[in-house]
Specification:
Elements (H helix, E strand, L loop, with lengths): L3 E8 L10 H16 L8 E5 L3 H5 L4 H9 L6 E4 L5 H15 L4 E9 L5 H8 L15 H16 L3 H15 L13 H6 L2 E3 L2 E2 L8 E10 H7 L4 E10 L14 H14 L8 E3 L5 H10 L8 H6 L16 H5 L6 H14 L11 E8 L4 E8 L1
Parallel strand pairs: 2-3, 2-4, 9-10
Antiparallel strand pairs: 1-7, 1-8, 4-7, 5-6, 8-11, 10-11
């Protein structure tokens, strides 16, 4: 397997982009990444694109062909990847394997979703297709309810508090203030989170990531190309992908996403690293409880200690392990197919020293991208 680096990044703003189409977001992100890499369209050998449900959100399938067509590529192979909210992360992994194997020297990989054209109830219905349709969503259990059950059990077993959950949201909003692409660039308080409307007890509106539009893209290259093309390549040191039961009630432990545990095990083993080596991480905080569970599943803290870790400020920029310096899904936004790519972009910007006022000084970064309630997880480790 060849070494693979990221040599270009590009993304659109995330938010309620009423005047934008799905394909315009994908094309903009891809063009920015190609420009950042200093290459031309003729240099690209293959495209990979992640999107969860463009057919239901936008009425458009067959996106692989559309990505290539509207981006101005001439007959090159193009692949659409779907893994619910982990679609972007899995597209990155597939592009990484492609280049590492020697099939192509340069790949463009992107993620995109256009969600806000639908109302909140249709969006909820579309997102619920990532759960077990027969035994969860058809019975009225949506993702707020699924994650609320995890939160309630974590509170019961480990005495985690609602205030500690709220502190996750407060931290991520504080980080997003300095991210020009973030959907919510404003501070919030614990009292505001606690006072927001409950969506599934104990989770409140401000415990949840928003409905978002947006696109993000990366350029991957083999070692020879990367070293000749870029002064600041960011290497993919480890890549892991695993699955778990799609239904929450089928798991031995409802407080562990074994997909994350196994994906992280493989990524750490490939990189020759351990959790203590990570300098910053972008974790899949679709709900505040998800960030706490990820901290534990990834081995950053002991079981049950994630709430205290957040309360002590250890996950802030300047803390022992900055988590979601981009603002995370919670404040940066969560256009589901693009989120995994946006996590990687934040890692690249951090490792290149290009993150501005949210720079962490990290030399090694980790991303964790989750599909559904953990039925799929993809973990990547990056280093300078």
């Amino acid at each position: 397997m060849r070494k693979v680096a990221i040599i270009g990044v590009g993304m659109t703003p995330f938010g309620q982009l009423w005047d934008r189409s799905l394909i315009s977001l994908a094309v903009e992100a891809g063009a920015k990444a190609i420009h950042d890499a200093g290459i031309t369209h003729k240099d690209v050998g293959v495209l990979y694109g992640g999107t969860m449900s463009s057919g239901l959100f936008s009425g458009q399938e067959h996106l692989a062909s559309m990505f290539a067509d509207h981006s101005g590529f001439d007959h090159i192979p193009s692949v659409r990847v779907e893994a619910a909210c982990a679609s972007g992360g899995l597209a990155l992994r597939q592009a990484y394997i492609d280049v590492a194997s020697g099939a192509h020297d340069i790949a463009v990989v992107g993620g995109v979703e256009k969600m806000t054209d639908l109302g909140i109830y249709p969006v909820t219905k579309v997102l619920s297709t990532a759960a077990d349709a027969e035994r969860e969503s058809s019975l009225g259990v949506t993702f707020p309810g699924i994650y609320a059950m995890m939160a309630r059990l974590h509170m019961h077993k480990y005495h985690t508090t609602e205030e500690q959950l709220a502190m996750v949201a407060v931290k991520n909003h504080a980080h997003a203030i300095h991210n020009p692409h973030a959907q919510f660039r404003r501070a919030i308080t614990v009292d505001q989170v606690m006072g927001s409307v409950k969506i599934a007890d104990p989770l409140k509106l401000l415990d949840a990531s928003p409905v978002s539009d947006g696109g993000a893209a990366l350029v991957l290259a083999d070692e020879k190309t990367a070293r000749s093309q870029s002064d600041t390549p960011v290497w993919i040191a480890g890549s892991g992908h695993a699955t778990d039961t799609i239904a929450l009630h089928d798991r031995e432990d409802m407080l562990s996403m074994r997909s994350t545990v196994y994906a992280a095990r493989d990524a750490f083993r490939q990189a020759g690293l351990s959790p203590k080596d990570i300098g910053m991480a972008e974790l899949h905080d679709c709900f505040t409880i998800a960030e706490l569970l990820a901290l534990e599943d990834l081995g950053f803290v002991d079981r049950g200690a994630s709430g205290s870790f957040i309360e002590q400020g250890q996950a802030h920029i300047g803390g022992s392990l900055p988590i979601n310096p981009s603002g995370g899904l919670k404040a940066k936004g969560h256009p589901v197919g693009a989120s995994g790519i946006a996590q990687a972009i934040e890692s690249v910007l951090q490792l290149r020293g290009d993150a501005g006022l949210r720079n962490t000084g990290a030399e090694i970064a980790l991303t964790q991208n989750v599909g559904g309630s953990g039925g799929t997880a993809v973990v990547h480790i990056f280093r300078r």
